Amino acid sequence: MVALALYGWTLAPTVTLVDSGELIVAARSLGVAHPPGFPLYVLLAHLATWVPLGNVAQRVNVASAVFAALAIAVLAAVVAEALRVVPTRPTPKKDADPGRDPTSAFLPPLVAALLLAFARTLWSYATLAEVYTLNALLIVVVLLLMLRWRRQAVDAGKRRKDLGVHSPERLLYAAAFAFGLGLGVHHVTVALLLPGLALLVVATAGWRFFISRRLTYAALGACAGLAVYLYLPIAAWREAGLNWGDPRTLQRIWWHLTGKQYQAYFSFSPGELGTQAVAFAHHAAREFGPWWCPAGLLLIAFGAGALFRRDRVLLAFLGLIAACNVAYTLGYAIAEDMDAYYLPTYIAATIVAGAGAQQVLRWARALAARWPRAPLVAATALLLIPVIALAGNFRFNDRSRYWIARDYVDNILQTVEPGGLLLTLDWQVCSPLLYTRTIEQERRDVTVIDVNLLRRSWYFDYLRREYPALMQQNREAVAAFLEDLTQWEQDPELYQRDAALNQRIDTRFHDMIMAFVQHHLRSGPVYITQDIALNRSAQDTRLTQALAAAYQLVPQGLVFQLVRDRSFRNPAEPVLITRGFADGTLSFESDDVVQLKVFPVYVSMLYNRGRYLSLFGDHARAVNAFKQALALDPSFAPAQTALAGSFKAMQKTDRPGTR
């Protein structure tokens, strides 16, 4: 209840950044989300969308909070179970329990559960629409069932020395079923549990388990849970809402499950591994509180030492889970939600922390004869550790006033005229805008195209449903590109080998986008976001050059408008809503997506407006734009330089004899 209350208090009031908008749309419409589709999450989140409280985004956000709170409750049971396991080797005398104390039964699980509840990562995803809290819940359910199976199997073996006939296999099969369900949420992080689970099985039941019927039954249980993926082709055939990847054939289902489009992000080069290792160390240092107060990490170290002496099987099991998780993630160069991939590691770490809390209590009871207050002091100190995590992480995880994504969309759309076409590479625009347009039914007049997704054939079916007029006007250019795109999806290496084919698909891609622009300008305005206009992605250099050569790019708020002539166009000066940026209501780490991808757009576009005005001699208004940019980021050097230049130009103009 403590965790649920905290998550509800800090819950985001609407859609957030990254995948939140897309996942809400998929859940509401019972569609297909991005690979691997997360079918179990979509189904459960869909149920949440029908709760008649708040907006649809809030309802799905609440579902994340509930999953996270349940995960915390189950984790407490996991720690209690882990510490009940009878060691398979003699306990050293120095680690023997000097006496029974009720505190040792409930305090270690409580401390571990609160430590994870107040830790940075799980809490951050408990306040928004994402798959990771449900993923964490199923992981801890698997761990609970497996550890309980282990304890009961060891007890049965001690009584009968036969783990193969009378041990409580129903727990094992239930764990296998939960494992299969977990694969239906975020299959990568769940699948990485397998080496650790195999180790636990071998240590408990021996190698003969893998040639017994029990393995077959466990596999069937996992397949039963995995059957949730049958949802994907059913949803694809419905063509309702979002149908990412269109997984209605065996090939497309396989592509979707294996995340084919994301495989390019894998790199195990020494340089990439080093970069990711540094990022992980940065995340881990702040996970359980401020980096300068590593009380949580110290407790984990105590626990690792205690388990090494008392229960090396459990330590190896948890260590292998963490090692496999970290090893995989170090080679996966994904950006915005990288921290969520480490959740299995943090879960394992907090279980070890529970053992650390137990060890601290043992030490305190050993000192009680000489210092009677030692147990009380130890218990108080242990409870302070999650409190430190709470205090250190609260300002970063409090999203109760998080309007960043909603304001970003509204600020963009306020300068987009009715009937406009918006081209963007920015997922932080597309995802929340997908929510506001589809769920909230706002600005349905605007045509929004994600240029990145134009490289996926399924996206054209979505465009035909949403913007039939646009697709009809450009049917020839679209058909020409799709001819190459479908062939490229079947055999991308063919295009790598054949320079002529690679040149052709690239030319047809850019010709299609230019056709979109040319045809739409006949009936309405066209806009592009700065990632296209300023060529932040080297992949689309040619597109940027073609647009700049054919059109004038006029800054209009947070976007550029494409116009045919080169004469001065008065740029809009909208009142930008910047809640959370400069008012001190929100805090962000330097690697937060807001700091990396959203905040720079505000600063840069204010600067671009000033630069455009200064080029046409309107230095007074340019100075105002530069000052607005510097009000958000006083260290933004281009605005500082441009401001000084505009002041100098104004002084020169005002001198006698210069007019």
| Average pLDDT level | 91
What are the segments in which pLDDT stays under 50 over at least 5 consecutive residues? 162-166
Strand fraction equals under 5%
Spatial order of the strands forming the largest sheet? 2-1-3-5-4
Helices, by number, come to: 29
SSE-based structural type:
mainly alpha
Q: How many beta-strand runs?
A: 5
Number of domains: 3
Described by the principal axes of the CA atoms, the overall outline is: globular
Main beta sheet: strand number and arrangement? 5 strands, mixed
**Helix residue percentage:** 55-70%
End-to-end Cα distance, whole Å, is 73 Å
Question: What's the structural blueprint in terms of helices and strands?
Answer:
Blueprint: H1 2-9, H2 20-29, H3 39-49, H4 56-84, H5 103-117, H6 120-125, H7 132-160, H8 169-191, H9 194-205, H10 213-226, H11 231-238, H12 250-257, H13 270-287, H14 295-310, H15 312-330, H16 343-367, H17 374-397, H18 404-413, E1 421-424, H19 427-438, E2 447-450, H20 458-466, H21 468-473, H22 475-490, H23 492-497, H24 499-520, E3 526-529, H25 530-533, H26 541-550, E4 552-556, E5 559-563, H27 593-615, H28 619-632, H29 637-654
Parallel strand pairs: 1-2, 1-3
Antiparallel strand pairs: 3-5, 4-5
Helix pairs in contact: 1-4, 2-3, 2-19, 3-4, 4-5, 4-7, 4-16, 5-16, 5-17, 7-8, 7-9, 8-10, 9-15, 14-15, 14-16, 15-16, 16-17, 18-19, 22-24, 27-28, 27-29, 28-29
